């Protein structure tokens, strides 16, 4: 039997690097996946690829920082499926900027997309898990676990995700488990964009990969392995945890 057979999974940021890999893994393991992203560019092709792989997938265009859009999406999902089993809050936006150069609007945007979205999605979708044993997985970052230059706002938002998740794990027990994934350097469009913003991007990419103990960037498929374990009943006694997947980058 496949690990997520018969389960319904909602994945946000579904068209990004890790979101896509997680949709593919959940689908391959038997879940019906509802993927959400604020853009629908490339969504038709992705839906076609998922169908070709034999996975049950549908896409919905949702800005997860908008309470109105999130609540509407929850109503549609509730009407269609009745209940869900997995909520994977993956949508995120990174900003590399010193504190003194950060505007009010930038603070609001980074906090809204990375932290408020997790609250909005949890408030809207956790009630759809009430009768079942659900798993909520929220994406933080090693940017929340140590100080990285110019990542104050993003780091603060991602640190907020950890504390929010711990309280949610207590509030929703014993029906729903809530855990946090803290990726380090994973090779996705976000990480490539981060390197592109540094002086000498190619050298920066190499230097960043050497900062991990394992001396390389991680792959989205490796994050999907962890996501699958947390989503499945194989992690049934794990809740309120934050798990770094970073090749050991926070060790030094
Ligand atoms: N790549 C890394 O090295 C890294 C490291 C630490 C944490 N993370 C976190 O992991 C998660 C996935 O990152 P990724 O590297 O795959 O990023 P990505 O940029 O490849 O994908 C992010 C996705 O989120 C979507 N998104 C952004 N704002 C949205 C919104 N308001 N509503 C709906 N969708 C929205 C984007 O369109 C995109 O498809 C993010 O939360 C990110 O902060 C990434």
TrEMBL record:
Keywords: Oxidoreductase. The keyword Oxidoreductase applies. CDD domains: SDR_c. It comes from the Bacteria. PROSITE patterns: ADH_SHORT (PS00061). NCBIfam families: PRK07231.1. Belongs to the short-chain dehydrogenases/reductases (SDR) family. This is NAD(P)-dependent dehydrogenase, short-chain alcohol dehydrogenase family. It comes from Rhodococcus jostii. The lineage of its organism: Bacteria, Bacillati, Actinomycetota, Actinomycetes, Mycobacteriales.
């Amino acid at each position: 039997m496949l690990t997520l057979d018969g389960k319904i999974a909602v994945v946000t940021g579904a068209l990004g690097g890790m979101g896509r890999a997680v949709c593919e893994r959940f689908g391959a393991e038997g879940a019906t996946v509802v993927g959400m992203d604020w853009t629908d560019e490339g969504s038709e092709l992705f839906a076609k690829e998922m169908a070709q792989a034999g996975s049950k997938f549908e896409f919905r265009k949702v800005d997860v920082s908008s309470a109105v859009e999130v609540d509407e999406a929850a109503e549609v999902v509730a009407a269609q499926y009745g209940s869900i089993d997995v909520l994977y809050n993956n949508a995120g936006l990174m900003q590399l900027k010193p504190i003194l150069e950060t505007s009010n609007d930038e603070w609001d945007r980074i906090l809204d997309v990375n932290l408020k979205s997790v609250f909005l999605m949890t408030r809207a979708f956790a009630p759809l898990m009430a009768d079942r044993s659900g798993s909520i997985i929220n994406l933080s970052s090693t940017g929340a676990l140590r100080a990285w230059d110019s990542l104050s706002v993003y780091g603060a938002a991602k640190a907020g995700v950890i504390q929010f998740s711990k309280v949610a794990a207590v509030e929703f027990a014993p029906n729903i488990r809530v855990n946090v994934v803290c990726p380090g350097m994973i090779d996705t469009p976000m990480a490539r964009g981060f390197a592109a913003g540094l002086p000498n991007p190619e050298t920066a990419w190499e230097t960043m990969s050497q900062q991990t103990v394992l001396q390389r960037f991680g792959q989205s498929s490796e994050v999907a392995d962890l996501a699958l374990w947390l989503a499945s009943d194989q992690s049934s006694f794990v809740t309120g945890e934050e798990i770094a997947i970073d090749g050991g980058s926070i060790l030094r």
